[in-house]
Amino acid sequence: MQSEIASEVPAVGREAIETVTRQPELIAVVAAALVFAGGVWWYLRPDSGDRFVDAITDHDRITVLMHPNPDPDAMASAMAVGALARAGGTAASIQYPGQIRHPENRAFETVLDCEFEHVEGIEDLAAETVVLVDHNEPRGFQGADDIVPHAVVDHHPGNGEGAVFTDIRTDRGSCASILTDYVRERGWSNRPDADGQSLTPVLATGLLYGIQSDTTSFTRGCTHAEFDAAAYLFPAADPDSLDRIANPQVDSETLEIKARAITRREIDGSFLVSHVGSVSNLDALPIAAEELIRLEGITAAVITGEHEGTLHISGRSRDDRVHMGKSVSTALNVIPDASAGGHARMGGGQAMLPASAPDCDGQGELRERFFAAMSGEL
């Protein structure tokens, strides 16, 4: 065997190999050199936070774009991008399509005095350089499909990417924990009175609540990184603001939709589907889903409601057998132009309804598809 290998190696190469094999100490020196070189590269490599800041501060102004109906994780991540940009001398505008209507989301925006701008079309964007947070493909407004993001930071699965920078960590429970990594890598202190750049109480509170919210108080999809980030953020966060955001007042329609979801529920084994009829506050659907997933014996729940001719779906799962994002997508794949997606633990979607059935109450076939998708039969 050795002779066969030797015959394939040029004479100069064979001499080098023979020299090394006759001198074991040389092998040790070479190995040590390689380990040292690798260590130097690892130590000197640019961190994601540094590369991200380099990417966004190449421009005078950026738009930080949140997904439609942004939640605390998206809002906190956008705030962090804005802070990093401004620290590097780049102006940043935080924008979003859709609405901020969920009580928790409205409280987050109000308590932290956030400056978010609404957009209805691509012409409303404050800058051509767009940074996406908490989603990786622009959506929810006219012209979104024509946007090529400059940078993307996300924890959701998807095919989107940034032209210059992409950081998608699907193993993370929140996008805010990734942005917290960036802030730490930039050397920001968690003590407001420290010398140099430090976290403000507003940013620390926002990031901490973003992590807490997207992991359902560190119980769902949470990783060690979320706990590590929370430990870093906590000394700079404001406890009173956290409490005010976490316990907002709830409007009467949300309570009514919860009641309808409970009374109209259909159960198959440990799976629940409930259609609540017409709604004006779409954020009440995920609130109802969060409520019904807590019912004894229920491990996965899908809530549907109709708004202006469109069926909206929100699902939650605490069942390792049920990937809710995939389940909703599978159930809707027979409906033209339907869209859906999400995490293993939460998912959502929407589909146009036929004009003859605007309230969708009689669409038992779709309900059965949700049950079949959750049970793995589709």
- CATH architectural grouping of the largest domain: Alpha-Beta Complex
Classify the fold: give the CATH topology of the largest domain. Answer: inorganic pyrophosphatase (n-terminal core)
Mean pLDDT: 87
Strand content: 15-25%
Oligomer: single chain
Placed side by side, the strands forming the largest sheet appear as 3-2-1-4-5-6
Quickly name the level 1 CATH class of the largest domain: Alpha Beta
* Structural class computed from helices and strand pairing: alpha/beta
Q: Sheet with the most strands?
A: 6 strands, parallel
Domain DHHA1: 269-351
Transmembrane segments: 26-44
Organism: Natronomonas aquatica
Domain DDH: 61-211
What does this entry look like structurally?
With 378 residues, the protein is α/β, with parallel strands linked by helices. It folds into three domains: 2-44, no CATH class; 50-246, Alpha-Beta Complex (inorganic pyrophosphatase (n-terminal core)); 252-374, Diaminopimelate Epimerase, Chain A, domain 1 (Roll). Helix content is 42%, strand content 17%. It has 14 helices and twelve strands. A hairpin with a 3-residue loop joins β11 and β12. The radius of gyration is 25 Å and the shape is globular. Mean pLDDT is 87; it is low at 1-10, 34-45 and 355-362. One of its GO terms (molecular function) is nucleic acid binding. Pfam families: DHH, DHHA1. The chain crosses the membrane at residues 26-44.
